[in-house]
Structure to design on (193 residues):
C-alpha cells in the first residue's frame, strides 16, 4: 500500500479549495476518496469543501498520481464513464423526440431537441485526441443527433436561435448561417406553399 502522505502532488491548483486545506486534512480527504467514500458524503463534513470543489480537484489532476486513476473510476469521473452517461442522455432525448414527432407535439419535440443539443455539445467539449471506444460510438451517433437537431430547429424558432448561438459561440459561424438559411427556406415554404 502506498503512503499518500509522502507522495508528490502534481499540478496543484492555487484557487482549489481542496489544495488549500491543511496538508493532513487534504491527505485524509484523498485517502477517503481512494477508499471509496462518495464525494457528496465527504462534502457534508464540517468545514469540508463543496462537491463541486472536490470534483474539480479530482478532474483537475491535483490528486497524487498513484491514486488518481482509482479515484476517477470510483467517483465515476473518468472520461469513459462520463461520456457514456452523456450518451445515454442524448439517446433518451432522441427517443423522446421521435415519440413527440409522431404525436405532432411541437413543444415536447423542442424540449427533446434542446436536451439532445446540450448533451451533444458536452460530448464535443469532452472529446480529446485519444478517442475511446465510447467516443467512436458517439461519432456514429452524431449524424443522427444532427438530424434531430435540424428537425427541432425547423419546428421551433427559439430552439433554432439557441442552436445558432451555440454554434457561433463555438466559432462555427458558417454552420450557424447554413442552419439559419435552411430554417428560413423551410419557413417560407410553409407560409407560401
Ligand atoms: Zn486541488
Amino acid at each position: 500500500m502506498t503512503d499518500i502522505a509522502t507522495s508528490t502532488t502534481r499540478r496543484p491548483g492555487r484557487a482549489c479549495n481542496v489544495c488549500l486545506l491543511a496538508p493532513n486534512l487534504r491527505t485524509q480527504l484523498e485517502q477517503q476518496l481512494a477508499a471509496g467514500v462518495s464525494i457528496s458524503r465527504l462534502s457534508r463534513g464540517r468545514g469540508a469543501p463543496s462537491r463541486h470543489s472536490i470534483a474539480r480537484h479530482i478532474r483537475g489532476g491535483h490528486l497524487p498520481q498513484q491514486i488518481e486513476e482509482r479515484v476517477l473510476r470510483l467517483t465515476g469521473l473518468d472520461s469513459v464513464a462520463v461520456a457514456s452517461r452523456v450518451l445515454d442522455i442524448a439517446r433518451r432525448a432522441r427517443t423522446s423526440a421521435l415519440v413527440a414527432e409522431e404525436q405532432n407535439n411541437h413543444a415536447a419535440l423542442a424540449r427533446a431537441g434542446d436536451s439532445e443539443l446540450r448533451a451533444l455539445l458536452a460530448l464535443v467539449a469532452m472529446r480529446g485526441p485519444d478517442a475511446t471506444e465510447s467516443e467512436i460510438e458517439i461519432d456514429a451517433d452524431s449524424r443522427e443527433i444532427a438530424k434531430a437537431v435540424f428537425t427541432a430547429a425547423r419546428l421551433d424558432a427559439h430552439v433554432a436561435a439557441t442552436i445558432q448561438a451555440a454554434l457561433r459561440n463555438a466559432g462555427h459561424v458558417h454552420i450557424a448561417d447554413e442552419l439559419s438559411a435552411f430554417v428560413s427556406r423551410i419557413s417560407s415554404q410553409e407560409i407560401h406553399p
